[in-house]
Design goal:
The protein is of the alpha/beta class. About 50% of the residues lie in helices and about 15% in strands. The structure holds adenosine monophosphate.
Length: about 190
C-alpha cells in the first residue's frame, strides 16, 4: 500500500490576490504537517507560495523549495525552509519538483501556476507519469479553467479521460483525502496487474 509522503503545490507568487486564497493555503499547510506530508514547491517567500510554506513550517512539517538562480532575488527565495535547492533553469525546477513529489495540487495563482498545471496534466495525458492531480478551487477561482478544459473535450481536442485526470475540490481536507485515496488506489491496481 502506497502512502502520500510529499505533495507538489503550484500556486501564486503574488501577495495581491484575495485574502481567502492565502487563508486556504494556511489551512492546507497546517493539515499537510499534521498528516506528515512534505511540501515541495517553487521556493519563494511571497504570495500563496509563501503562505503555504510558512504554514507547513510553523506546524512542524517539512518544506523543500526548488528555485532557479535568477529568481532568487526576483521572487525572494525563502531562506528558512527545510531544504532550498537552487537550480539553473525553469525547466530544471519543474522537472525536480515533479520528481520529488507523489502528487500535485494546484491552488489559486497566476500565469506561472497555469503553466505548471498544464505541463503536469499534459505529461500525464502522454503517460509520462501517473501521479494524482487535484485543484483546490477556493471560492470557485478555477471554475473557468475547468470550463475551458470541458470545452476542449466537447470540441474533441481532448478525451474525457484527460479532463477526468484532475479532481476539483473545495477544501484542504478534501484535497489531501482525494490525493491519498488515489495514491493507494493506483498501488492496488498495479499490484493486481502483476
Ligand atoms: P504565478 O502563478 O505567475 O505567480 O507563478 C507561480 C510560480 O510559477 C512562480 O514561482 C513562477 O516562477 C513559476 N513560473 C512562471 N512561469 C513559469 C514557467 N514557464 N515554468 C516554470 N515555472 C514558471
Amino acid at each position: 500500500m502506497s502512502h502520500l509522503t510529499s505533495v507538489c503545490v503550484y500556486c501564486g507568487s503574488s501577495n495581491n490576490g484575495p485574502t481567502s486564497h492565502r487563508e486556504a493555503a494556511n489551512a492546507l499547510g497546517k493539515m499537510m504537517a499534521e498528516r506528515g506530508i512534505g511540501l515541495v514547491y517553487g521556493g519563494g517567500r511571497a504570495g500563496v507560495m509563501g503562505a503555504v510554506a510558512d504554514s507547513v513550517l510553523s506546524a512542524g512539517g517539512k518544506v523543500t523549495g526548488i528555485i532557479p538562480d535568477f529568481l532568487m532575488r526576483h521572487e525572494v527565495g525563502h531562506m528558512n525552509i527545510t531544504e532550498l535547492e537552487v537550480v539553473d533553469t525553469m525547466h530544471a525546477r519543474k522537472a525536480r519538483m515533479a520528481e520529488l513529489s507523489d502528487a500535485f495540487l494546484i491552488l489559486p495563482g497566476g500565469l506561472g501556476t497555469l503553466e505548471e498545471y498544464f505541463e503536469i496534466v499534459t505529461w500525464r495525458q502522454l503517460g509520462l507519469h501517473d501521479k494524482p492531480i487535484a485543484v483546490l478551487n477556493t471560492d470557485g477561482y478555477w471554475d473557468r479553467l475547468r470550463d475551458t478544459v470541458n470545452g476542449i473535450v466537447e470540441a474533441n481536442y481532448a478525451r474525457p479521460e484527460s479532463a477526468a485526470m484532475t479532481s476539483y475540490v473545495g477544501t484542504a481536507e478534501q484535497a489531501l483525502d482525494t490525493l491519498e485515496r488515489q495514491i493507494s488506489g493506483s498501488e492496488h491496481l498495479s499490484s493486481e496487474m502483476l
